[in-house]
Amino acid sequence: MSNISPIRNTDIEELERIAKRIRYNIVKMIGLAKSGHPGGSLSATDIIVALYYKIMNHDPKNPNKKDRDIFVLSKGHACPALYAVLAELGYFDKEELWRLRKVGALLQGHPSISIPGVEASTGSLGQGFSVAVGIALGCRLDKLNNWVYVLLGDGECQEGQVWEAAMAAYHYKLDNLIGFVDRNRLQIDGCTEDVMSLGDLKEKFRAFGWDVFEIDGHNFKEIIDTVNRAKSLKNGKPKMIIANTVKGKGVSFMEGNVGFHGKAPNEEQLERALKELS
Amino acid sequence: MRYKLGEKKGMRVAYGETLVKLGKELPNLVVLDADLSGSTKTAMFAKAFPDRFFNVGIAEQNMMGMAAGLAITGKIVFASSFAMFATGRAWEQIRNSIAYPNLNVKIVATHSGITVGEDGATHQMTEDIAIMRCIPNMRVISPTDYYETKSVIEWCAKNEGPVYVRMPRRDTETVFSSEEEAKFQFGKGRILEDGSDLTIVATGEMVPEAIKALELLKEDGIEAQLISMATIKPIDEDLIVNSTNDLIVSIEDHNIVGGLGSAIGEIIADHGLKKRLLRIGVRDVFGISGSATDLLRYYGLDGESIYRRILEEIKNK
User: Fold this and answer.
1) Min distance B87 CA to chain A CA atoms (Å)
2) What residues of chain A lie within 8 A of the CB of B96, using their CB?
3) N or C: chain B end with fewer CB closer than 10 Å?
């Protein structure tokens, strides 16, 4: 089990620098692909960076090591963020990023298990959560002391399967499972609360028997401290961290703009965005 | 006849018994069910290996996702429910979470077809072969009897990748007399009888009915070749291509759209074979309530009805 030392300010600054570089690559890869989901990739970036650079026990040189921590990106459309992180860490050649979504490319439009470092094929919403529950159960059967992380979208929580999975994780007492909801409050058709009210997600997960935390999903200290707290509670309950985020975070004209949920920036927008992230 | 019909025995019982046997050999075998373990017979495994059995409640979509996750951690996963809910309710989970990543999950469903009986249309799955065989990576098996089911389940456990196995609710006559005789060969149809007037291709619980029809035809001097097609995908193309008979009759407890008959029709079309195909099955309608025996007669799927339908076809040639 990886124990995390107290966070120093220098660590935070380093993580912020990394996240900025990751955001630059996310926007660039989607811009070159001329398709993809910048909004939800940018809102999830800091959580994914914190997990892979600070929290998780994993080894790009030995991606299948048995006791590794496992991350499942249930909101699969945010995969540019995951791909950028995996490339930076050396899971595959960084040049692959610039061929995203092209015929014959390694990097598919949504995560595929065929990509080094990707643990589950996801993208059809709700499904990755169940897969993560199954992985957590499998790890426990193997008596591993690792952690399983799963990242959900807030719109994704409208899928009934999410609640089937939530029920099962509680029932099987999977306290090796830590979830995040990327609560950016937007989905393709508009505000989550206008399309289909999610209401108080904290109370909903709590009612399903989970330990629930609420954080600022762009604050590295809060992300890391909260994961540490969640890990320390070996009480038989799965943990859910509701992370309040900003869709399109880091690019001024994408922030809070639902238009960039599933649309790539055009050439002019790409140039502006990359300048902001340089 | 090379094979004689024996006493009625449940394929799902064979499933439960084989799971228990395999559980002893394979410590990484786990079983999931969605609140139907008494009916699917996974309860037999649950009793023997409570730590490796997971009842996920009435939540088939989550069951398939969890099955995928367990397979990712290296488990051999069997996931069971009724054919309707296993394949219908959770189709997209099977496609995206299991088949696309080609995971080691065996979806073994009971209560296929109209012979589910009294529960009626909502529980009579007559589209499962169609919706499973169109998924890449998925193999589809419909065992012939109790003995072959044992061999099929053993094959599933010992071969990597996703498989769909369909079995009926009711007990059916055994076609083989032992497990050794019934030894399953994946992807191979089995010629149970030779005949030069027509070829009957039956699958699963329809094989005993086909044998009854064949015996009646024999009394009329009509010699039918009989093939039991347990693997529906990948189907044994050679058996169909090499058949010298002009008339082929497919028999299945499934919609004639998309099932065994359709699969044979694809072979005939692909190879440009000059053969007539008579598809006997559920003729694109929903089921109704009734006893299995009465329903087989109602839908023309009992031996006697199959015999008469084939006679009619031969006369109208």
Assistant:
1) 16
2) 121, 123-124, 127
3) C
Cα-only R_g, chain A: 17
pLDDT digits (tens, 9 = 90+) for A152-210: 999 999 999 999 999 999 999 999 999 999 999 999 999 999 999 999 999 999 999 99
Residues of B in contact with A128 (CB under 8 A): 65
Residue B66 · residue B56 · CB < 8 Å: yes
For residue B1, is it within any domain? no
Reported ipTM: 0.96
**pLDDT at B230 > cutoff 90:** yes
Nearest to A134 among B57, B69, B96 (CB): B69
Closest alpha carbon to A226 in A209, A210, A237, A213: A213
Together in a domain, B160 and B203:
no
CA distance B252 to B263: 12
- CA of B67, closest CA in chain A: separation in Å? 6
Among 2.40.50.140, 1.10.3720.10, 3.40.50.920, 3.40.50.970, what is the CATH number of A9-276?
A: 3.40.50.970
DSSP for B118-186, please give it. TT-GGG-B-SHHHHHHTSTT-EEE---SHHHHHHHHHHHHHS-S-EEEE--SS-EE-SSSSTTTT---T
Cβ distance A171 to B30 less than 8 Å, yes or no, reads: no
